[in-house]
Design goal:
single chain, alpha/beta, Spore Coat Polysaccharide Biosynthesis Protein SpsA, Chain A, 2 domains, two-stranded antiparallel sheet, 6 helices, 26% helix
C-alpha cells in the first residue's frame, strides 16, 4: 500500500423494513433518514468513492442527487432481504468496482440506521486504522455497569435461569467490573481482503469508543430519534 489507502464508503439502504416501512426515505427532522449518513460521508475527505447500495430505484435516485454519491447499480434481490448478511452486500459492491477496474484497500460501512455521528467521526476512525495498522475497526459504546455481561442471565424453557459467564470468571461486586462495550453501528472499517474472504471483522480489530447512539430498527427507536432532534441535540 503506497501512501494513503483507497477507501470505498458503502451505504446500504434496502427498501424493505418490517419495523418501519420505507424508513430509509422516511422524513426524520424534515429530511430522509438516509440523508444523515450521506452528509456524514460527504464530510470525510478520506473516502475516495461513496456508493449507495439499494434494491430500490427511488432510494438510488434520491441518493444520486447528492454530488459525490454514486448509485450505479441495483442490488440483486438475493442480497436485499432482511436475512441477507452484511458481508454479502459489501462483497457485491466491491466486486462491482473491481469489474470497473477500481480497487480499494479498505471498505467503510456506514449504516443509515445509525444517523447521528459526531462531526469528523468517520475521518477519526480512518486515521485510527492507519495509525494502528489495524485490519478492522468498529465504533463501540460502553455498556452501563448494571447491564454488564458479568450479571447477565439466560432462561431455559422451564424458566430456570443461569448466568452466561462462567463461574470461575464472575466478579462479585460492581467496583471490580471491567468495562465492556457494544457495537453502536456508527462506523465499520474493514480491509477489502477480509471482505473478499467472507469476513466482516477480522485480523487485528480495534474499537473506537464513542457516545451511545440511536439505532433505528423499531417505531420506538424512531420516536427516540425524533426526541433527540427536538431537544436540540443536532441541527
Amino acid at each position: 500500500m503506497n501512501g494513503f489507502p483507497e477507501i470505498l464508503g458503502i451505504i446500504p439502504a434496502r427498501k424493505g423494513s418490517k419495523g418501519i416501512p420505507g424508513k430509509n426515505l422516511k422524513l426524520l427532522g424534515g429530511k430522509p433518514l438516509i440523508q444523515y449518513t450521506i452528509e456524514s460521508a460527504l464530510e470525510c475527505k478520506w473516502l475516495n468513492t461513496i456508493v449507495v447500495s439499494s434494491d430500490c430505484e427511488h432510494i438510488l435516485r434520491i441518493s444520486g442527487q447528492f454530488k459525490g454519491i454514486e448509485a450505479p447499480f441495483i442490488r440483486p434481490a438475493e442480497f436485499a432481504d432482511d436475512s441477507a448478511p452484511a458481508i454479502l452486500v459489501l462483497s457485491h459492491a466491491v466486486k462491482y468496482y473491481q469489474e470497473q477496474g477500481k480497487k480499494f484497500d479498505y471498505v467503510c460501512l456506514l449504516q443509515p440506521t445509525a444517523p447521528f455521528r459526531s462531526k469528523n467521526l468517520i475521518s477519526e476512525a480512518i486515521i485510527r486504522v492507519m495509525q494502528t495498522k489495524a485490519d478492522s475497526l468498529v465504533t463501540i459504546s460502553k455498556i452501563p455497569d448494571k447491564y454488564n455481561p458479568n450479571w447477565a442471565f439466560q432462561m431455559s424453557n422451564d424458566e430456570q435461569i443461569f448466568r452466561i459467564m462462567k463461574k470461575e470468571i464472575l466478579v462479585p461486586c460492581r467496583q471490580q467490573l471491567a468495562d465492556t462495550f457494544y457495537r453502536n453501528g456508527k462506523v465499520y472499517i474493514i480491509r477489502t481482503e477480509l471482505i473478499q474472504n467472507g469476513i466482516l471483522l477480522g485480523g487485528k480489530i480495534i474499537g473506537l469508543v464513542t457516545e451511545p447512539g440511536i439505532n433505528i430498527d423499531t417505531q420506538s427507536d424512531w420516536e427516540n430519534a425524533e426526541n433527540y432532534i427536538r431537544n436540540g441535540a443536532i441541527t
